């Protein structure tokens, strides 16, 4: 049994699909993680001395709050898609300043496990890449297949954020901190767990922009 049914949603069949980070940009299915950008805070690090001022590359810190969920029946009202059984991350489009330190806080309400396709080496999408992650305040470097629900993966930036499922009726809080590139650009993010519809799990939300797939804009 590879997954547990979400509340009110039919159980999905998990398919197998071999993935690499480089290949992740293709064949995306858009699943639903609902994300809302709630706060944008620019913080400045003061330079304590004149000498330090010379290198006042005043690092900006951007806080972005996202919400992951599956339909309109639970979680914070007003932020979800309302498509039963479709997971989403909202907002799906995220913009951060070039060179900023970005703190993503994801409130994940989805209580279903979606294991990654099995490979001889395991899957790199279980691994935290491109930044540091905490789950409910505890540092993690890996989220295994007994817990993983979704990922936020930006192949072009080498970023992978595995998201554990929520406890039934509850929420899991993931904080991922990374340094945005100094060069502006626009990149696709997508979930890499087969959490959508159909035999492969790559249909439905996984195949639709705005659910399990969106845009990361730098600059
Ligand atoms: Cu997903």
Description:
Helix content is 2%, strand content 29%. It is mainly beta. The chain has a single domain (22-42, 59-218), classed as Immunoglobulin-like, CATH 2.60.40.420. The longest helix has 5 residues, at 50-54. It binds copper (II) ion. Residues 31, 87, 150, 191, 193, 195, 212 line the site of copper (II) ion. Copper (II) ion binds next to loops.
Number of strands: 11
The CATH architecture name reads Sandwich
- Which fold does the CATH topology refer to? Immunoglobulin-like
Distance between the termini: 43 Å
The oligomeric state is single chain
User: Total number of helical segments?
Assistant: 1
Main-sheet strand order equals 2-1-4-9-5-6
Class from helix and strand fractions: mainly beta
Please trace the helix and strand order, writing H or E for each element: HEEEEEEEEEEE
Question: Helix and strand layout, with pairings?
Answer:
Elements: H1 50-54, E1 61-69, E2 88-90, E3 93-96, E4 101-108, E5 132-135, E6 138-140, E7 148-154, E8 159-164, E9 172-179, E10 185-190, E11 213-218
Parallel strand pairs: 1-4, 3-11
Antiparallel strand pairs: 1-2, 4-9, 5-6, 5-9, 7-8, 10-11
The structure holds copper (II) ion.
């Amino acid at each position: 049994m590879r997954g547990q049914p979400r509340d009110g949603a039919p159980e999905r069949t998990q398919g197998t699909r071999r993935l690499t980070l480089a290949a992740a940009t293709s064949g995306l299915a858009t699943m639903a993680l609902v994300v809302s950008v709630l706060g944008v805070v620019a913080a400045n690090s003061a330079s304590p001395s004149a000498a330090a001022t010379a290198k006042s590359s005043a690092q900006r810190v951007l806080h972005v709050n996202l919400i992951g969920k599956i339909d309109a029946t639970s979680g914070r009202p007003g932020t979800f898609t309302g498509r039963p059984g479709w997971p989403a991350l909202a907002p799906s489009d995220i913009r951060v300043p070039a060179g900023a330190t970005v703190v993503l806080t994801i409130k994940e309400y989805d209580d279903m496990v979606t294991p990654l396709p099995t490979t001889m080496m395991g899957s790199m999408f279980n691994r935290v890449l491109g930044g540091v992650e905490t789950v409910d305040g505890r540092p993690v470097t890996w989220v295994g297949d007994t817990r993983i629900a979704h990922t936020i993966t930006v192949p072009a930036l080498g970023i992978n954020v595995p998201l554990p499922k929520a406890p039934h009726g509850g929420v899991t809080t993931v904080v991922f901190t990374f340094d945005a590139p100094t060069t502006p650009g626009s990149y696709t993010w997508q979930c890499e767990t087969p959490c959508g519809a159909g035999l492969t799990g790559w249909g439905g939300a996984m195949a639709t922009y705005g659910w399990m797939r969106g845009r990361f804009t730098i600059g």
